[in-house]
Amino acid sequence: MDMQSNLRGYFARRWFLHNGEQFDRLIRLISVALSVSESVAATLLREAHVYTAVDTLSDAEKQLGLPSGDHLPIDERRRRIIARNYERGGPTSTKDFEAALSMLANAKATVIPLYSDFAVVYKLEVGTAKLNLPILEEYIRKNKLAHLEHSYSLSETQSNLEFNSTQYPIVHISTYQACGTFSSGGEYEL
User: Which of 78, 107, 122, 168 supports an S-S bond with 172, CB 3.0-4.6 Å?
Assistant: First the structure.
């Protein structure tokens, strides 16, 4: 059902029987206005986050002092903006935080807030099971809310987890705990 037919359903049918062409024009006008509003809203939602933006990437590059990336692929331009946001103090939304965390961990990252416990779990879908925890910890400490404790949850296929941390400056291989979560850094130590 198109927009005009849908809008007609909201009015009494008798309005369109006698001299109904004015009402038809009104319905056409309203349907065009609603279509334009829907497209503007969809564009606004798409451009609100760096990981889905297309049209506002050049504005973000200018704002962050990056050289024009018009010759680069869109994904590369997004990664540059996320990296510069990291250098300046981090992203402003959860989706951008997840995108930056995914880039740093080289794995798909999801933020799972546990507000009642004042905690957050970072779920990492790690395929190679190699993590550079100092980089992740530094990024998380700079960008998460200070009053939230954090831990990691891994979904990986191997039984060994390879990581390095400040406590273990060389690469350390440890058997991954079956409980599914572990903590590192500030609140706890491995």
Answer: 168
